[in-house]
Fold this sequence. Notes:
The chain is α+β, with helices and mostly antiparallel strands. The chain has helices spanning 23-28, 64-80, and strands at residues 7-8, 14-15, 38-42, 45-49, 57-61. It has one domain (7-80). The strands form two sheets. It has a three-stranded antiparallel β-sheet, with helices on one face.
Amino acid sequence: MTKMVIAIKPDGTMQFIYKDEMxxxxxxxxxxxxxxxxxxxxxxxxxxxLSPLKGPILGPFPxxxxxxxxEEKWIQxxxxxxxxxxx
Length: 87
């Protein structure tokens, strides 16, 4: 089980990678879910296209599971763990 990383912006909004386990909590607030990437098959392999976050296309990977893991790792390192002064 991976740790959930939640980024809290100066305006109080929170960003995190959606997990089904959070569904009940999300319904209690004013949540807006946005697509962060597209994990798709390409020639019998998988890629994680992070262009919605102005990120790279990761892969190809032999397994979808690996593409999802690398997608999550990239988002945590490059979006959720950025310092407030970074863009």
